[in-house]
Backbone:
């Protein structure tokens, strides 16, 4: 494939520390995208769509036991920008069944919902029965899903946990939450980090002056450490055991203040972190070394809203964007002519070398092994959220639609 063809099909660009600064600047300006992967665009046969008459801001699978072979069958959604926003619980039971004609069967059913005050800015399951939400009103809420009669109720609420300095009456949107039962951590536009415990009515700890910029996303790095990303392109590490409001480390792309919107860490190698931001670029970081990303990959044509490693198959990574795309990044090191993500047709023509002793995302050659699939080629409105668990992926969009996809990851 020529560079000209590569430009026409919007392929990736990548920067490694071994490359020079001039190369990096060209990559950041999207002027030099070498051909490093194959991008497919197609809605898969085993994708099911549910139109729900509300813009979906967040989608999350209900957790299943890590040691279980059980596939996820229930997920939650949170809406935004509607006259009345809701938290809803859905069943995805029956997915994967095949008719005699070898067609996939599946149906998305609403189990229950409840009104949510403000936009749902973020959402996570605390456990199988409790869901935590972050609201544009600054409130953090725990909802209880009563599975015996399929209802939702408010279990706990921290009203205006985020608020603008000098006035408890002026709320600041709570922009992100992360849960590690019983602990909950929230971040907001007010630059605060709050630590809660599920059974406590009081906020356990507050980092009042954590960030002078808006924080957009948070995740646990380890049990006592968190990572945040903010509106000036910084990735920050925090130790919840330390006193004071200062981060333990700050990472950023030199000279780049493009807002970062999402962050996720590798499930088994926690020093590997992925972020995405306003420019649609995917950044991969090794937080053990340096303060700059290991690689920068041009990806979406607009803001990247979420990035997620597959929790048990972390060579697979997923991103979604304002441009209406949902990308699957496959960095698994396998033989070239493997069955494609689309199922049944051999569409991979990239040479794949074995990555034995290192992680695929840190290898200097990992981009040569990347295969990227756009799973929603017909979508035109923003895909705001995704979640992947087992063989299933769920995403929600401003098109007032939920998509559930089944795929066996190898």
Residues:
């Amino acid at each position: 494939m020529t560079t000209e063809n590569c430009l026409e099909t919007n392929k990736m660009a990548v920067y490694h520390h071994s490359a020079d600064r001039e190369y990096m600047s060209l990559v950041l300006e999207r002027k030099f995208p070498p051909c490093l992967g194959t991008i497919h665009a197609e809605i898969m046969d085993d994708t099911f769509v549910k139109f729900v008459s509300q813009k979906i801001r967040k989608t999350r699978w209900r957790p299943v036991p890590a040691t279980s072979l059980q596939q996820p069958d229930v997920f939650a959604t949170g809406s935004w920008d509607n006259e009345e926003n809701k938290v809803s619980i859905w069943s995805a039971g029956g997915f994967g069944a095949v008719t005699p004609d070898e067609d996939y069967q599946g149906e998305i059913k609403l189990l229950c919902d409840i009104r949510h005050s403000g936009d749902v800015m973020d959402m996570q399951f605390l456990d199988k029965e409790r869901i935590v939400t972050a609201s544009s009103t600054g409130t953090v809420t725990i909802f209880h899903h009563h599975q015996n009669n399929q209802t939702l109720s408010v279990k706990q609420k921290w009203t205006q946990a985020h608020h603008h300095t000098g006035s408890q009456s002026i709320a600041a949107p709570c922009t992100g939450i992360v849960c590690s039962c019983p602990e909950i951590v929230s971040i907001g536009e007010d630059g605060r980090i709050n630590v809660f415990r599920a059974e406590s009515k009081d906020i356990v700890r507050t980092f009042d002056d954590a960030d002078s910029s808006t924080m957009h996303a948070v995740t646990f790095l380890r049990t006592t450490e968190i990572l945040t990303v903010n509106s000036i392109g910084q990735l920050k590490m925090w130790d919840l055991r330390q006193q004071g409001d200062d981060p333990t480390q700050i990472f950023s792309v030199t000279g780049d203040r493009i807002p970062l919107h999402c962050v996720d860490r590798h499930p088994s190698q926690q020093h590997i972190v992925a972020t995405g931001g306003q420019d649609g670029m995917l950044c991969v970081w090794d937080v053990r070394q340096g303060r700059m990303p290991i690689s920068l990959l041009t990806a979406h044509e607009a803001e990247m809203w979420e990035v997620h490693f597959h929790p048990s198959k972390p060579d697979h990574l997923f991103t979604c964007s304002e441009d209406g795309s949902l990308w699957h990044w496959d960095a698994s090191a396998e033989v070239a002519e493997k069955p494609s993500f689309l199922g049944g047709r051999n569409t991979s023509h990239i040479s794949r070398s074995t990555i034995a002793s290192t992680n695929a995302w840190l290898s200097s050659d990992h981009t040569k092994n990347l295969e990227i699939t756009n799973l929603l080629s017909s979508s035109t409105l923003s895909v705001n959220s995704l979640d992947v668990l087992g063989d299933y992926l769920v995403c929600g969009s401003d098109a007032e639609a939920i998509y559930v996809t089944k795929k066996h990851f190898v």
User: Anything to note?
Assistant: Helices lie at 3-8, 21-28. The first strand starts at residue 14 and ends at 15.
